[in-house]
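We read letters as residues; the integers encode the fold. Take this protein.
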Amino acid sequence: MRIGFIIAALLFSQYTSAQLRLPAFLADDMLLQQKKVNRIWGWATPHQLVTVEFKEKKYPAFANNNGEWQVFLDAANAGSAGSMRIQSGEDKIELKNILLGEVWICSGQSNMEMKLNALQDLYKDELLTASNDNIRFVVVNRTMANHPQQDVQLERKWAAVTPATVGDCSAVAYWYAKKLYQQLKVPIGLVVTSWGGTPAEAWTSFEGLHDFPAYSNNYIDGVGKIDLAGINQLRQSLKEKFQQVVKEKAAFVAASEQPGFDDTEWKEMLLPKPWEQQGYPTLDGIVMYRVIFNIDAADAGKEAEIHLPAIDDMDSTYINGVFIGSMNQYDALRTYKIPAGILKTGKNILAIRVQDDQGGGGLSAVEDKYNITVENKVIPLTGNAKYSIVAEIENVKGVAGDIEDQPTVLFNGMIAPLLPLSIRGAIWYQGESNADPGKDPFEYRVLFPAMINDWRNRWAQGDFHFLFVQLSSYGPLKNQPGESAWAVLRESQTKTLQLPNTAMAVTIDVGNYADIHPHKKKEVGERLADGALKLVYGKTTMISSGPQIKSFKIQSHQLILQFDNAGAGLVAKGKMLKHFAIAGADKKFVWANAVIKGNTIVVSSKLVANPVAVRYAWADSPIDANLYNKEGYPAVPFRTDD
């Protein structure tokens, strides 16, 4: 009886797997690319005839030995396309309410992934009123794979923009689509496939990493051997092991929150600063910090506030053994009330328990958001803190860092299944993870173009248009010129414009030095759209980007700079230009005076008699850099030295 049941189950499984099926993103309400041949594909019983009927035409195909089939629809103009009917034997599928228009892939890390409903502080009215059946989007679920996949799971099925749905759309992608629709009056389709905190190599195919042996070998020797299909179970077992350690150390943690705890054997770490930048690039888990600060007798016992920078992910904060507050949001500043009677004269103890489950960990390096205020008095907390690693979440064996950051795993799971789609192009917002400590931002100038070329080769639709966002401002504001990994990565992004059919949106002016996820996504999306209008949609005379250094010459004690994309003229937002620095042969950069003269800028400093190089907006957070053209686009950061 049992044998018969097993045989019947196997036969049923084979039968159901052979039935007519489409990829998840070919579905009701989808949007297909106008004026291009569109491929429709799927699976059916091997060797069976499949017929696709669309716009009063029929397209036949036979499933191959593996049950795979495909047809190619004739190109058609934008607009409503009605329904599509697919039939194979007795199996029938009908896809309803299809549009033809412009299809864009929207990819990258968290600043592309960030949904509109996470930005109610800025876009509350848009969330309540947005409604446009001609803007549609689909969201691919986060997926990793060892090898290129044929299908994906969806986080959000195809949907038109309404107040009920728009909150689930990438904010950058939404504002991009909205401006395109306003200008073009054709339907816009967005395929959002992104994952926060991930590097470019994870989005590149194995073959595309041929010139990067460190990544391809890592894949061969490490991640390629891991059962990614069972990764969730593996992670769960590691998490349970971690939770057991936390349980065993509960008494130790409770004791370390108290002022009398002996921490003399603990090591020291600078705060505020992420622990990845202080010797722990792959650490996930719980770290306990203890900080000594002093209170004057006049302030003791008073009600106060403690201000903490963004903490990745969760903090529990104590002062003198008293719980003050907790938050589980990796990108949020903290402000906690300190009740009267807690602070005492002389030495006080701040204890912070930080738990990070993946990605970056610890306190963001924003010193002016790390203090205690008593009435109008500010007591800085910046300095060394004692720390202890309470419990560590183990990495997957054979992999250094998060598994989703490994070479090619996201390409396999979240890009490869989309390759048969006809598209107009891609918009991309990523790079933060390739500027992290332990990464080489110089590498991005070859890695990023390699990824773009890899996508173009794989999609086999020529050098399709690729628009990307240059990194915004994030990180401590500096009083003096200095080196910056983010500035180097921005330079690498600028150099990628040498590829054909590319455009870049500069966003340093809409960043937030205290938040790696700046909220001003409307400006970002619209600047990408301006690039598309000029590059893709025929508005060739349009100024769509800011001034970009063209050349410079040394004239006595001055540097004379000339720019492309000056538009109607160069302007400074404010009384005088900021964030220009020059250096002589000693390579020591100092702030410089910069004056606009026509379409040139004259830069000089009394401290540099013979300047040889100039830099503009060369910092992690050049948020006060204020060179624009009259059309309102910020200048591209640059340096003339190498």
About this structure: The chain has eleven helices and 35 strands. Residues 548-639 form one domain. The chain has a mean pLDDT of 93. The first strand starts at residue 31 and ends at 33.
